[in-house]
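request received
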Amino acid sequence: MFYREAGDFKTSYTADSQTFPIKFDRYRYYVVLAVAFGIIPFIINDYWANALLLPFLIYAIAAIGLNILVGYCGQVSLGTGGFMAVGAYACYKLMTAFPDISMFIHVILAGGITAIVGVLFGLPSLRIKGFYLAVATLAAQFFLVWLFNRVPWFYNYSASGQINAPERDVFGIVITGPNAPAWATYLFCLIFVTVCAIVARNLTRGSTGRKWMAIRDMDIAAEIIGVNPLKAKLTAFAVSSFFVGVAGALFFAVYLGAVEVGEVFGIQKSFLVLFMVIIGGLGSIFGSFAGAAFLVLLPVVLKLIGVDLLGWPTDIVAHLNLVVVGALIIMFLILEPHGLAQLWRVAKEKLRLWPFPH
Amino acid sequence: MPEQLVFAMEVTLNGLMAGVLYALVALGFVLIYKASGIFNYAQGVMALFAAMTLVGIMNGQVPFAHLINAIFGTHVHEFGWSVPGFVAILLTLAVMVLLAWAVQRFVMRHLVGQEPIILFMATIGLAFFLEGVADLMWGSEIKTLDVGLPQGINLWIDETTFQIFDYGFFIDNLDIVATLIAALLVIALVAFSQYTKQGRAMRAVADDHQAALSVGISLNFIWVMVWSVAGFVALVAGIMWGTKSGVQFSLSLIALKALPVLMLGGFTSIPGAIVGGLIIGVGEKLFEFALGPALGGATENWFAYVLALIFLVFRPQGLFGEKIIERV
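response:
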């Protein structure tokens, strides 16, 4: 009833192969874009931007990136935090070295640098598989964080060892630093999220994505039918790291403004993004958004209920948060291993028949 | 004898001792992995949980005191008694067995037949859950643990080496005790799995689940037992590390240190865990000693992983792991 596929006729190949072939999906997508670009920037304030929208958008990029690697190509990585740190530090070095160049270019270049680092650490994936690879990516995580902590060149020899984002603008509008208006930072991140999501969506339904999925389902079989595992795995690492690097750059430059690498990009960050991907749904772009939204919202909601409503001390609520996240992950893996994205698919199935289910 | 060489010897000895402690954690992983094919990321948090429970019981803390106080507005903190170390260890062991049962009943039973990577992620979830529960139960402040193990410099080694090399080695008594206990534990585990009925059943399950089922071995019972044994190993590791550096969150990170040990030794081999632990322990201490100052220090954070990574590229199944055979 609400979700109809009938009566939606395609008369050309272009129409048939568009991103959202079903009319309802397409209109929903346009409406979401219209609200995100046309309405939210006018009503946004600092609290909403910093507590919810910015982290959601940035984590969504990171989750899409990790989902490409884990969900589409089947290479489990626990090095996301380290790669985000690469993006952040690359962005910082670029911002301070070339202050006149637009932030857009800095963030994209930071993503490119992260992609190169990602490919380097992805090389062992040709020999190592499964758990062993997951543990091997921990090498990237710990080594990179150590590197940014110990080599002063990366933080420009600052006394505190932190990096602070200087004020930079895009077309005359301040984007980074404490004086950036909420709507500008929001729009800046939103543009990246939109482009990344479109790129990811089209990559994963094209030949590259099919090669990734073939590798994921069974790499030896894929190799026999003519998929080059070297190319497929390394492109997955490159694209995934690019996204993660962009997320890291935005996380540092636009969202936090100042970063201490061990605290912000530690192993916990890697797990957080991995959880977003699991809870959202492995191998689904929509799932990445859903997972990011869920895990950004959860602590905020728990804090609202626990601290503001019931008046409990913050440390208890923080511990409860851990318990709830852990329990949710186990529950999702038991009840719905395909995550929120699968719930959405089931809901669509139900909506298609509603209110006459037989 | 040149001074550098003597220092290097001391570093090596200390590395061996640290390696034994890594191996102790790695053992817990190997046990569960062998018996159920689950890579239990929560092993480190189990060690933390065990150590916190032990301290809590010894000091007579009220479990969930903070939560109870927050909900009911009361002010309970302690029962006002203290339990002797040995009894507290037994009680903690009971808690760990209960935990093993709960994990098996509420988590693992529902995930039978899932892909290994899903099981791995479930244990990461379990790790978060347990960490939160441990903090809620006993509070998250740093605690000291003292069950009466000797601590401090071993004077005998100090004096003997001073007579030989003109330089006294610094070796902690606790490390020596830990090494002895770890050795005993390994012998006990090997004897258990070779000579007892339950141990043999455990090995049968590890070999082939279905064949074990068909000869009348209860998978549920074996898994609860394996998780209990892993809980026991976690308790021992928790006591050692907790006495050494205090019971605090960083204790759970030793699990991450045990991972490269496992990768070196192979996931399925008990001797591998020990040899891997020794290699990593000595390797990282010597690397820090030789190159640490030049590289900016704290290389221990990553050396083990990079070593394991390079090693795996040449031998993907680890030193003693079973050869990986893949078929389409």
